[in-house]
Structure formats: C-alpha cells, structure tokens
Design goal:
By secondary structure, this protein is an alpha+beta fold. The protein has helices at residues 21-37, 47-63, 120-127; strands at 11-18, 71-78, 82-89, 130-136, 139-147.
Length: 150
C-alpha cells in the first residue's frame, strides 16, 4: 500500500519511535491530541488507536524481544474517511513471513480456560479494512487501512 499524497482534509504524521512499551501509549495520545487541535474527527474516535496500539505492541514484544533494540517508523495518513498506517521496523520477521490469521477463539468457556494471548491479531483484522505485510532486505513493512466512517 502506498500512502497517498496529501488530499484535501488529510493530516499526516511521520514518526520515529523507540520500540519500548511506554512509548506506544504516549505516541498515540499525542497523535490523538494533535488531531483534536486540528479539528479532525478522528481525534474523537478510538478504534484506530486500538489497532495501532496492538500492532506497535507486537513489534515491541516480538520483533524486538530480547537484547536487541530498535525503532519503529510509523507513517500515518488520516483523510476524512480513513487512516492509512505503515509500520516499518528492522526487528525479527513475522512467523512464516505473513500476518497471522485472526484466531478463532472459543469465548464460551470458563474464564480460567481462556487463552492468555491471541486476541491482538483478531482485533487488528476486525478493525482494519486491509492488512498487508512484507519483509524486504531485513525490513518489515506492515500496512493497515482503517475506515473512520464506523
């Protein structure tokens, strides 16, 4: 997915952030506050934040797990109707070189039998109209297209 050139009413962010847990929350809060100051209606919605938080946390927890540290480049393009998001990092590749399928999780079980993880990719898929991933020469590219109409 190519991030389109600026359209009328669009807002773009190009951020480099360290792949550290506390930075994810602060980054998304700052983007939301900036959108609110600009009067962009996405500043009042939170579903896009959930998808971005899950994706960034996956990079922090999995791509950069262990002693290696790195950055995430986050490119966001908000139009009045959608968000195009690109995550770029040099951490580990996704397992099998592709985005995990949304898990079919049986929620009709006692709480203690629910899986500890596995909900993140299901949420990302549910909140996104399009999810693509590729790895080129040691660089991960994850792209999300999220509708802001809902």
């Amino acid at each position: 997915m190519n991030l389109a050139p600026k359209a009328i009413g669009s807002t773009q962010f190009d951020l480099y952030i360290p792949a550290e847990p506390g930075v994810v929350h602060n980054t998304l809060r700052n983007v939301r506050q900036s959108l609110r100051r600009q009067g962009h209606r996405a500043g009042e919605a939170f579903s896009w934040e959930l998808a971005l938080a899950e994706a960034m946390n996956n990079v922090v927890e999995h791509a950069y797990s262990g002693p290696e540290k790195g950055d995430i480049r986050l490119t966001l393009s908000f139009t009045p109707t959608e968000l195009l998001a690109r995550f770029t990092d040099t951490g580990r590749a996704m397992p099998r070189g592709c985005v995990p399928d949304p898990a079919e999780i049986d929620l009709d079980v006692p709480t203690e039998q629910l899986p500890e993880g596995g909900f993140g990719w299901s949420m990302i898929h549910a909140l996104s109209r399009e999810v693509t991933y590729r790895r080129i020469k040691g660089v991960n590219y994850l792209n999300l297209r999220i509708s802001l109409d809902e």
